[in-house]
Design goal:
The chain is an all-beta fold and about 120 residues long. The chain has no helices and 10 strands.
Length: about 120
């Protein structure tokens, strides 16, 4: 069984910074891509950023230049450094892993629990 354990999140003032991390646990051989989605009240879930095992990254336009995603493949951990936060970044952020191979199973995708990020003065 694979679990995604997140840390980080909370309340920050506009212009501030937060760092999210998400570690995948289990007997994992490989994870193709890890990333973060977010869902604000009344809005659809959207991809914020993702990174492949090879280091290729993808960001939604609204966070480009402000957020940076990184990954430690040895630790099966993904990080999201969020700078210049804006009120519109307020949402529940969810960790996601795609194509996870373990000693017993291959998972097309795994979701972690959400963490609330609130940007407000």
């Amino acid at each position: 069984q694979v679990q995604l354990v997140k840390s980080g999140g909370g309340l920050v003032q506009p212009g501030g910074s937060l760092r999210l991390s998400c570690a995948a646990s289990g007997s994992i051989f490989s994870i193709y891509a890890m990333g973060w989605y977010r869902q604000a009240p009344g809005k659809q879930r959207e991809l914020v950023a993702a990174i492949t095992s090879g280091g290729s990254t993808n960001y939604t336009d609204s966070v480009k230049g402000r957020f940076t995603i990184s990954r430690d493949n040895a630790k099966n951990t993904v990080y999201l450094q969020m700078n210049g936060l804006k009120p519109e970044d307020t949402a529940v952020y969810l960790c996601h892993a795609r194509d996870v191979v373990t000693d017993k199973h291959r998972y097309l995708e795994v979701w972690g629990q959400g963490t609330l990020v609130t940007v407000s003065s």
